[in-house]
Amino acid sequence: FFVVEDHILHTTQGLVNRAYIDELWEMALSKTIAALRTHSSYCSDPSLVLDLKNLIVLFADTLQGYGFPVNQLFDMLLEIQEQYSETLLKKWAGVFRTILDSDNYSPIPVSDEEVYRKIVGQFPFQDAELEKQPFPKKFPFSEFVPKVYSQIKEFIYACLKFSEDLHLSSTEVDDMIRKSTNLLLTRTLSNCLQNVIKRKNVGLTELVQIIINTTHLEKSCKFLEEFITNITNVLPETVHTTKLYGTTTFKDARHAAEEEIYTNLNQKIDQFLQLADYDWMAPEPGSRASDYLVDLIGFLRSTFAVFTHLPGQADVHSTMSGKVAQTACMSACKHLSTSLLQLLLEAEVRQLTLGALHQFNLDVEECEQFARSGPVPGFQGDTLQLAFIDLRQV
User: Would the pLDDT of 229 be above 80?
Assistant: First the structure.
């Protein structure tokens, strides 16, 4: 319509004038923008929002070529960009949930060089020791690590698509991508990880694997920075460059997994302790520690063997990972000691025989033997045994 009006203006005399067309354009533009704002707000499919943006750009560029002012259209596109980012975040929340729900939370086995190179191509991982090992071998992380990393890159590409043809500077595009990616990491992915960690049926081995996975994803954040830099050609040293906050997301998830490990261990100990059935009036002690306690110590031994899967001693996160195992072990021993003490001192136990006390002593000795055996490396001297010292004194 406006192309025809412009043609009439330039090829005829007196039918239309510039003031009439400008007034008509201003009215049409305001109504068009209002309609687009209303209808785009209902759109939840990012591909449809992208199609809408492409049509608006085509419309704006065409009309601008005929001299019509279109700045308001491009301003509106920046508003739609925020909405596009939100639809992307919702879409990727589903993508991440699917990846995390389908993961087996065990290290990726590789049988040959081709599979090894494929995974290294998906995720920036270098380990000289693993390189030297013969096939078959395993990556330390599970499949969700390369999958999540690849999907973060796909999200960045999707953000970039919207910025095309908007006549934005490289710095503006870089800033837009980084802000959206930060939301993906700190809000969307963070929530998905926290939900997995807090699930009722999550086991200790899965939590240990999550600690390993988030350690490797945290280290990959610098490669995501480089990836964005290569796309936008804006150096990270530039004054106004937004930094990625991915490391915070993965640290928070790791800390949540650690806390869940401590909580789960204590809950398991409580379940075993519910089986305790002391006869406080027994005339003679048994010949060995109580069955429930032997089973409990066996469970703790096998559990702490799992912690040997935590990241190796060579990297920056290893000290922290070692501390997770040590803290979990100390926490479990203290909880066990306190719980046994409560059993002995509870109000219902008004008197007890020497035989019952000897039986209880056998159980305490079993705990002390467990502490002496060094279930987790890194404790100095008898540090772990001190967890049972109050119980021993009583």
Answer: yes
